[in-house]
Amino acid sequence: MYGDRRQPPPRRPHPAEAPTEIIRPVRPPDPPTEYIPIYRDDDYDDDDEYYDDYDDYDDEPPPRRRSSPGLTAVRTVGELLITAGLVVLLFVVYEVWITDLISAEKQAEVTTALDDEWKDPAAPDPERVEHFSFADGEGIAKLYVPALGSDYKFTIVEGTSEKNLEVGPGHYKTSAPPGGAGNFAVAGHRVGKGAPFNDLDLLESCDAIVVETRGNWYVYRLLPTTADAKNWAARAADPRCAGAEGSAKVEPLTGEYAAAVGRHIVTPRDSGVVAPVPGNPAAKTPPDQRRKLITLTTCHPKFSNRQRMILHGVLVRTQAKDPANPSAIPVELKETG
After folding, report:
1. Predicted local confidence at residue 81, as pLDDT
2. Lowest mean pLDDT across 81-85, 166-170, 227-231
3. Is 214 left (phi over 0), alpha (psi -120 to 50) or beta?
4. What percent of the chain has pLDDT over 70?
5. Which residues are CB-neighbours of 245 under 8 A, at least 6 positions away?
6. Please, which residues have CB within 8 angstroms of residue 44's CB and are 6 or more apart in sequence?
7. Strand-strand pairing, 216-222 and 139-144
8. How far is 103 from 107, CA to CA, in rounded Å?
9. Considering only CA atoms, which of 274, 271, 275 is closest in space to residue 284?
10. What is the band of 209 on the pLDDT scale with cuts at 50, 70, 90?
11. Three-state SS for 190?
């Protein structure tokens, strides 16, 4: 009887007896967040909502807001001012730098031609050459101003036309020749085109101005300025003014030459500054008795031709060139400013 009894099923645990730790299946980790899946165009159908969203955007840009007349005028004026500024800047660059390069090349050519002429053994006697009538634009002499640097040297050409002054300082054709009785007058640009007379305002009373010709060195010195002339007794002790090295003494001029001072400013119409007796065209002094002077003229102020700066100097000595010793130069060329 007991052999037929079936075994009872295992007793189900009471909920209170269930394990407290629940074990859940492990989910694979998420892919890296930096990764962005790439989809091909064929992954989408024409009816996909992804493409249909673009239908909500308007292809036309929003209407542009119209500028007021005042704003348009201001913008136009601003653009014109910028354009004008660029034009002025380009003009200044051309006048100050480009023309300097062009003139330097022309100056080199005329200097070479003058050197070749002076070296020519078939040239006339130097004493006759000093009074030769030069052709327009031809080199006639060399100008040195030691106070402006040991490298200051320009070939003076015959004539004062704009074309001549693009080459270098130009000799007033009606004025005296270098070293001659009267007024040897020379013009030159102050800005651009080589600017040979750019720093003439730096010269002081008694500074040397040396002119070289084929046969001679002519040493001029700047006449006393108006300011220095008022107290010339104190300045006259300067060896350069007192006539050292066998030179003539420098002092303020009087009488018919009273208008000839070291430096002064005049209008472009005042042509009397280059007269045989500067500032006194009506002077009656006989030609052979005139003082031997040099006059340098240039524009004033810089970047303007409204006025003219005038410098007058007086010849203090002449040094003949020695063919046997061509390296012998005037001691004045070694002076510094």
Report:
1. 80
2. 81-85
3. alpha
4. 73
5. 317, 331, 332
6. 50, 51
7. unpaired
8. 6
9. 275
10. very high
11. coil
Which of 200, 163, 197, 156 lies closest to 179, judged by CA? 156
202 closest CA partner among 254, 146, 250:
146
Report d(CA 209, CA 335) in Å as an integer.
Answer: 11
Tens digit of each residue's pLDDT (9 = 90 or more) over 34-76: 444 554 555 545 554 444 444 554 566 666 667 688 777 887 8
Alpha-carbon distance 213 to 136, whole Å?
17
More confident residue, 168 or 28: 168
CB 43 within 8 A of CB 37: no
Give the torsion sign (CA, 42, 48, 53, 58).
Answer: positive
300, β-bridge pairs: 307
Residue (of 331, 70, 73) closest to 219 by Cα position: 331
DSSP state of 304: -
3-state DSSP assignment of residue 186: strand
d(CA 108, CA 102): 10
Instruction: List 293's β-bridge partners, or say none.
Output: 183, 314
CA atoms of 273 and 265, how far apart (whole Å): 10
* Tokens found for residue 106: 């022309």
How many CB atoms lie under 10 A from the CB of residue 56?
Answer: 6
Q: Thinking of the domain 91-334, which architecture would CATH place it in?
A: Beta Barrel (2.40)
Inter-residue contact 184 to 293 (CB < 8 Å)? yes
174 vs 276: CA distance, rounded Å: 9
